[in-house]
Amino acid sequence: MGCDSKLQLKAWKTLSKYLHGSNEDQEYWWKLTGRHVASLLEAAEYPLEKQYECLFFHYRWTCFSKVPDMGPAPGSDGLPTKWKSLLSLDSTSIEYSWKWNTTIAEPDIRYVTEPIGQYPGTELRDIGKLESEAQMARRDGRDIKIDTQVIRDELFGFYMAGQETTSTTLCWAMRYLTANLNVQTKLRTALREAHVRAHRNGDLPSAQEIAQTDVPYLEAFIQEVHRVGNSVSSIVRVTTKDAVVLGHNIPEGTDVFMLTNGPNYKTPPLKIEESIRSKTSRETKDKFGVWDNWSIKRFIPERWLIKNEEGRVVFNPVAGYTHPYGAGPRACFGMKWAQLMLKSIITIIVWSFEFAPLPPAIADFKAIDVTTHRAEFTYLRPVPIH
Fold it and tell me: Quick one: residue 252, left, alpha or beta (phi over 0 = left, psi -120 to 50 = alpha)?
């Protein structure tokens, strides 16, 4: 910024002495932008503790997150700089505003806007790139460039995770409704009790009513279909660093397949010695319930229902183990949409039809594994409800 000669920059001087980038490009961007940020923090009268906190965050952001997008340091390899700043002459990718010390006018606030979309700095940043491209295309009066790796990845993910999985789950839902007439009756009764207007008027529930109405038994039924149907038989993650799981060393970069159809899910849990559990494993082992050996192989939606403090029956998603969408920040980003689709379709079908029992020859639960774990055949005997 070129005007910090009167600033002490104590936090910056300390951190820049001990924190460095792992290559020349990282070092360049950290030393350049770090001093700028330090000057802003001190000029804005941030407490020293907060200056350290903000600068350390900026260091991690610069050296471990942003640098790959910022490109090489200017002139490091003879290539032109990737970023051009309108407010500074150093070609940084960051625009700054600062306080002018003047006694005759209000401080002059400068800013620059750039079409970056809604999601910069979040896990949805790649989706934001699509929005950014659309904005920049409109600004420049050109066609949108849709043949990009980001869009191809999104379409592939949408096809693999957003189509076949939902249809497979619906097929399993129909199979279990047909095979469990008592469950079918309970679900239909629960839906009619929840959607009073539609039941009274002889209508179908509206999309808005389905989305906004809490039907615990419907939630429990869908969760049990996930547990025993196993549309997705495993969830895959790649280790980003060396890890130890129950005493087993897992190197960085390993594909880890987490099965959703084994112990704790559909068979009794394995016995794990406490001594080989990590601290986090010990702390979270009781987060989910454990099914008893008798019921774990049976289709029982009620296992997901409990009474709350008010005595009302509610859905309990952690009553036991099932993870059809994964968990944590890397869980399926289409989970809410999939749940809404399942609730809507199952509600309309169960509201409109009864499913009569099938002959034994076509009532089995044989499955095949292709893109999903799906029923080999799905035969139905729907009887319209008048």
Answer: beta
Please give the structure tokens belonging to residue 145.
């460039």
* DSSP result, 135-184: HHHHHHT------SHHHHHHHHHHHHHHTHHHHHHHHHHHHHHHH-HHHH
* Confidence at residue 43, expressed as pLDDT on a 0 to 100 scale: 81
Ranges of residues in the chain with a pLDDT under 70 are 1-6, 64-132, 135, 146-148, 150
**Rounded to two decimals, what is the model's pTM?**
0.62
Q: Which domains are assigned to the chain?
A: 10-112 (no CATH), 163-384 (1.10.630.10)
- Binding positions are 332
Quote the CA–CA distance of 367 and 375 in Å, as a whole number.
4
Over residues 197-255, the pLDDT tens digits come to 999 999 999 999 999 999 999 999 999 999 999 898 888 888 999 998 888 899 999 99
Binding-site residues for heme, in ranges, read 332
